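Our platform keeps sequence and structure together, in a single record for each protein. Such a record has a labelled line for the sequence and another for the backbone structure tokens. Nothing more is needed to write down the fold, since each code stands for a local backbone conformation. For reference, a complete record is included directly beneath this paragraph:
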Amino acid sequence: MKQSARLILVLLLALSCCAPATPPACGPVGTLSGATVPVYLVDRGWHTEIGIPAAALTGPLGFYRQVFPGARTILFGYGKKTFFTAPATSLEDYLIGPFPGSAVIQVVALTVAPDQAYGTGPVVILTLKPAQVERLSAFIWGDLASGQDGAPRLVAVGHDPDSLFYAARSRYTLFHTCNGWVAQALGRAGLPVSDRMAVFAGQVMARGARAARALCPVPSAAP
């Protein structure tokens, strides 16, 4: 039993370590165009988040333009409810962290693009087609549990008033973690990002960087 607890603790400590910063492989300035939309993969240390320009949120997910009317970018992150909404303060909290449980989706509003808010180091910019953004928005909305009014069900307010936690339909497990959820979302959008064994933030950032390079236009040779 003690050995199992030590193994779990080692895993948690690894998850909490900051992954190496991954600069964006390429990408547009944070503006929208008719052809592509900049979507941001953000390394927050122990987990990753997806940033979508507020103006590009499609379908029902446009609900968050009403929640955060002054936002330029909306970040979406995933995690276990008890661990995400109330930061761990004891060894016991960390030991029970990986066990299955209800999940939440954190929604954070930024008045700037993520690369301006956090620097270029922990941000990868992905240039998505509008149809890909639609699929990404649909995936996120599909995992938001709704209340009786049909709107996403708010369960907690973050330390920052521009940070809110909403109930998720899916459950958090050792095989469906915060980073796996982000990789799955990008894959559902049609990007070459696999969620297989996506446990650590660094793994997802590396896969996102490879996808960003694949999306880069190849410069034509000079005549």
